[in-house]
Amino acid sequence: MVLSEIEFEPDDRYHAFLTICRKAPCGDGKLAGIAVAVKDNISTKGIETTCASKILKGYVPPYDAHVVELLRQSGAAISGKTNMDEFGMGTTTENSAFGPTLNPADTSRVPGGSSGGSAAAVAAGMVRMALGTDTGGSIRCPAAFCGIVGLKPTYGRVSRFGLIAYSNSLEQIGPMANTVSDVSLLMQVIAGHDRRDTTSYNQPYRHTPDADIRGLKVGIPQEYFGAGVDPTVAELVKHAIFRLEELGATSVPCSIPSMEYALAAYYVTCTSEASSNLARFDGVRYGPAADTKKSWHDAYRDVRKTNFGTEVRRRIMLGTFALSSGYYGKYYAKAQVAKENVKKDFARILADVDVIAGPTMPTIAFTLGEKSDPLSMYLADILTVPANLAGIPAISVPCGKADGMPVGLQIMGNHFCDERVIDVAYAYEQAVVS
Amino acid sequence: MVTEQDVQHIAQLADIGIDAGELGTFTARFNAILDYFDVLDRVQGDGAGARDLINVMREDVVEPSLPQEDVLRNAPAQEDGFIRAPRVM
Q1: Which of B10, B12, B70 shows the shortest C-beta gap to A62?
Q2: Interior/surface letters A8-36, b for 16+ CB within 10 angstroms, e for the rest
Q3: pTM (2 decimals)?
Q4: Segments forming the whole domain that contains residue A193
């Protein structure tokens, strides 16, 4: 029920928002009157939703995503739509067609991506909480780079109805906020069954964080502290794990051998799914007009070449190639076996330990323009994609600073044990705050 | 290794379009990424991960949908309550 509206006039010096709702209706409920920012790939009825792409410029969804309906029902004020890498394809938010978001901790650096606008809006104090989406780290990476908390829920726990699809088998909508308690509160609102998403699982989240982690076993995978991980970042994360031990947890060394090919499996899978999902953008039902006088291939080609960014076009083409006859077996089929192996590795480890901990990102936030080569940008996702392939919950919680920039501690848990990763993050956060 | 002609062909399959000026860089980066994907040749196992999954279907009955005018609102070209599309023949 709409009770009133809040005025939202943020100083958006970091370009966190693509759309600002200056007067946002709100109501009664769990999130009464709280301003919540929503990533621009989540459909909001009556509010422009572009996925940070020119191909959806001007698109106003005629319906709400399931999570947005839930936000409205809980009294939250949808205060705006946040910037992102176009269609979620990136690790920096520089791939937005409408210009990059800056990191509030250092404006010469990226906020991470692809939910960089949501992270920056929270980190800069413009909103108390935000929704992001995470296909291969897109909530956890910007949370780590901006120094906030972000949860990728278990696959299936939050409905994807109304999320403009990029890679259906991997992506989840999740909460972002300055504290673990607020992430948990937002998760209470958005989790639960929705028949309009056939992968939705009926397991609501009614948890309140509990900081007692005595007796908990924490797996420490060697691959999360190996080559490519900045030694300063690794040291900070090891120190954070030591704090968990001081709180009564025990750490256990472990190994995820499938990490060797997890990143390749991820990129083959997500580009393949993208090549199919993004076929719908053709200038016919929405977006900039296709020239209906031309033949359909020519009309689509022109509209898609002009209005998709370079990275989006690259991923559509990579996926088209990976699925094409003669290459399907070498790429897509192999990637699905690899995905299964990643799942098995996590199942084996999580049979012995309660959670797995490591860094969220191998480095601190990049400077703007630093990752101009696509492959080097992909490699930065190595520590976040395994949780998406396995479908397990993973949270990033701030654990100190390296060179003045925030570093994230990542906690991963078993399927539908989102409560447990929240508790471990909460225990760490409370220990550091007090 | 894919060639510039291969990349052009893929662009055509995907209805994505590619300019002559960007073909060289696109092809080089494409090959660097495909080289990296070669690590998948080392994957062992039978996978077939769909074993424990079931399809979730609803009954095939008509349910209320969006009003026609709401659906048409975003379409750039319309005619008589329909969406106008490029010619197919």
Answers
A1: B70
A2: bebebebbbbbbbbeebebbebebebbbb
A3: 0.97
A4: 1-434
